[in-house]
Amino acid sequence: MKPIDEITGTIAPLPRANVDTDQIMPKQYLKRVERTGYGQFVFAEWRQDPDFVLERPEYADAKILVTGPNFGSGSSREHAPWGLQDWGFEAIIAPSFADIFRTNCTKIGLLPVELSPKECQYLIELGEQDPTAEITVSLPEQTVTYRDQFEARFEIDPFVKWCLMEGLDDIGLTLRHEDAITDYEARRPSFKPTVV
Asked: What would the pLDDT profile of 153-162 be if each residue is shown by its tens digit?
């Protein structure tokens, strides 16, 4: 997992509430056995509309998705954040997230940022009016800024913040103790199962 410090990029504005994981990653695309390659299926049904934000060339390189409340509700499918990250998003800003979706994002290094509805609306309108406008999400400072015209603070669990800044997923956290694990396995009685 790549460590996160600051994310600077343009906005893909998605002013919709209650976007669930089936809309983000429709069920027919969940049969893959790899974790990669899901980006092409993100919002597959909505992208049939050529006016949908992700189909518009001016938003093709957006790193930050700004959307409405209760983003990522519905089933807990981790394929939804995999697809959003694979598409190219590094952060998602919304007034609220489904808890499991938020957790699934942080486990892969996709930063979920909660701002107030008013702050999200400002960013959505900014992205709609100027697709070239770049905002900065600073994880160390816990801020979202646009030039000297906008600044908002967000909260994040300190442990989750540390993991994201260090680039540690659950496996990475475990491997920090590899020497202790190896030492323990070496001292186990021979009649107990061993790792192969």
From this structure: 999 999 999 9
